[in-house]
Amino acid sequence: IHSPFDGIVIKVGVRDGQYVTPETELYTIADLSRIWVYVDIYEDEMPWVQAGDMAEMTVTGIPGRTFTGQVTYIYPYLDAKTRTNKVRLEFDNPGLSLKPEMFAHVRLQTSRQIDAVVVPSEAIVRTGGREQLFISKGNGKFEPRIVKLGITADNETQIIAGLQAGEQVVTSAQFLID
After folding, report:
1. Can you give the chain as a three-state secondary structure string?
2. Residue 51 reports pLDDT greater than 80
3. The pLDDT value given to residue 112
C-alpha cells in the first residue's frame, strides 16, 4: 500500500494479519516540517490576542534555541473548567527537531498598545479584592489609589483606570509607607 502523501508515520493502526475494512485507519502520517502548537489563554487576556500575532517558543529538549511563529487560529469557545481559550500557533520546524507532544514555553507578542499608561509590576499592591498604587504627592506625602489593571508584559503592567500619565508612583518598599 502506498500513501499519496509524504510524511512520517506517527501512528500504526493495524497489525499483521488483522482484518481491515475501508474505514480502518491503517497509519497516521504527518508532515512535521511545519507544526501546530496549542496554547491555553486565560479569558481575561483574550482581548489582547489576535490572529497574526507573533509568538516565540522555547522547549526544554532543545536548550538555547528560540522558534518564531504566529497565531493562526483562535477557537470560538472557552473551556468552562479552566476558564481558558485554546489558540493555535504555527511554527516552521527545520531539521524536524520539534516533536509531537513536546511541552513548550510560549511568549505571545500581542498587538502594540499606543499611549498606554504603564507602571513597573512591583509598584502594584494587591490587597485581596483590589489593586492599588501609592501616588507621590510631594513633600513626603503619598496617596493610596485603587486602579484597574490591563495586560502585564516584561514586568510592566498597563493601568486602564485610576492613574494619569505623568503621575509618580512608588515602585518599591510600599510597606514602609504609613
Report:
1. CCCCCCCEEEEECCCCCCCCCCCCCCEEEECCCEEEEEEEEEHHHHHHCCCCCEEEEECCCCCCCCEEEEEEEEEEEEECCCCEEEEEEEEECHHHCCCCCCCCEEEEECCCCCCCCEEEHHHCEECCCCEEEEEEEECCEEEEEEEEEEEEECCEEEEEECCCCCCCECCCCHHHCC
2. yes
3. 67
Looking at the predicted structure, is the pLDDT value of residue 153 above 80? no
> Residues, the chain, total?
178
Report whether pLDDT(154) > 80: no
Q: All 3 cell numbers of residue 37?
A: 502548537
